[in-house]
Prior knowledge:
The protein is an alpha/beta fold. It has helices spanning 5-19, 58-76, 94-103, 181-190, 214-244, 260-263, 280-287, 289-311, 326-330, and strands at residues 31-36, 81-84, 108-115, 121-141, 144-163, 171-176, 249-255, 269-276, 339-348, 352-359, 367-372, 375-382, 388-393, 400-406, 415-422, 427-434, 438-446. The protein has three domains: 5-116 and 166-311, Aminopeptidase (3-Layer(aba) Sandwich), CATH 3.40.630.40; 121-163, no CATH class; 334-446, Immunoglobulin-like, CATH 2.60.40. Strands 2-1-3-8-6-7 form a six-stranded mixed β-sheet, with helices on both faces. A five-stranded mixed β-sheet has the order 9-17-14-11-12, with no helix packed on it. Strands 13-10-15-16 form a four-stranded antiparallel β-sheet, with no helix packed on it. A hairpin with a 2-residue loop joins strand 11 and strand 12 (375-382). It is flat, with a radius of gyration of 29 Å.
Amino acid sequence: MSKNQVPVLVLIAAFTLLIFPCAFSQKKLTTIIVDAGHGGTRDPGATGQYEGSLRSREKDITLAISMKLVAELKKQLPDVKTIPTRTTDIYQHPTEKARIANENGGQLFLCIHADSGPLKQGKRQIGTREETRYKISYKKVKKKKVKVSTPYTVTVPVYEYFKIPLTRSGTSVWIFAPHKTSDKLKTIMDNADDFEIETDNADSAYSKFDFRTPEGKALADIYQKRFQERSDKLATLVNDEVDKTGRHALGVNQRQVGIWVLQATNMPAILVETGFINNPEDERYLNSEKGQQELAEAITAAVIRYKKQVEGISKANPQNADVKSADEKHEPLKSDSRTTKEQKVLQVKSNKLRIEIFDDGEIDNDIVSVYFNKKAVVENKSLTVNGYVFNLDLIEGKTNELVLYADNLGTIPPNTALMIITDGVNRYELRLAADLKTNAAVRFEITKPPKPKP
């Protein structure tokens, strides 16, 4: 192959990936890596420390859930190789976990953890004790002041101190943050020898490619973006399946620090915080066979849905690249799955609006989707101090409704957004709040100026 062909092939590959993703959607999911977080005496992870806790260790809980997850994946997806990073109580550095995942050709990385949080200290009286104190007085002795200490006894309370359990509970799912994409890109390039472009044609000229060239870096960038999207897709499905169990599903989150292994694997990767080890109800659930199996089955169900979606083409219609899986075809708008608690009415002067959306108050990693007349106009957007801008065209004579959907709760619930709306004449500010059960909405009414008097 001539050198002049390389940029052309990259352009073809990049164009195909971005414009016709279904052409690459038939790549079979063949290998899943399951990682039990923490391990060994060096890294026990979080421990149950509140008064009356089971004194659980995160490393034991994650191993128990991971082994059940591996068994469930092997049972329900027998054609997919499922590889655990550890099966015993050993310590593995995150680089070792990533090496196992990358060298085994993993296409999904499922990291299992248990959450915790700072515990407040309480105190209570458990009795009393007698304490000797001294009253100081002075008397004159030969014209000098002499200090006299007179002992007396008082009864004082005796206290004991204890750690108060967390009230926060539930399961959350985490993916690598957008600013970490450069790390993910480096991982793809560092593992280029073991990396294959997704194509069913084994003889394709670009099924193997040098990602260290300028053209290769551009293609690697496309892949890291795809990994981000697919990580988010799987995380959303896991959150949905957890919600079906009746547990408190805390949504999809993007942690800025602390999950190095997610960006060190050259594949879509998620981390599941299965529950709060210092919450009494969660700790009992995480230690129970029922709870561990329920979580394993929920994650497996999400992986099966993910597999159907990314493989994309129905076996009954292998030639039709536009056929969607049953999950995709009949799945309702996610905004329709929740009630609308907060609804505001805004009268505007024009049918053309400019919307700017910010995180309201403290920046706490709120992620939202926005629907206008039941169509998504913003999907899984992290809100920051920098406004995200989009335009709307209102339809006269129709109810025009904008719905804010919370994809997570951020670190400070609920999910809050500030919307600045301009209609060419006036500027409006609206503050909306949504959570994982309710949406917030704005209904727009176009007010026409009064007709001039004849």
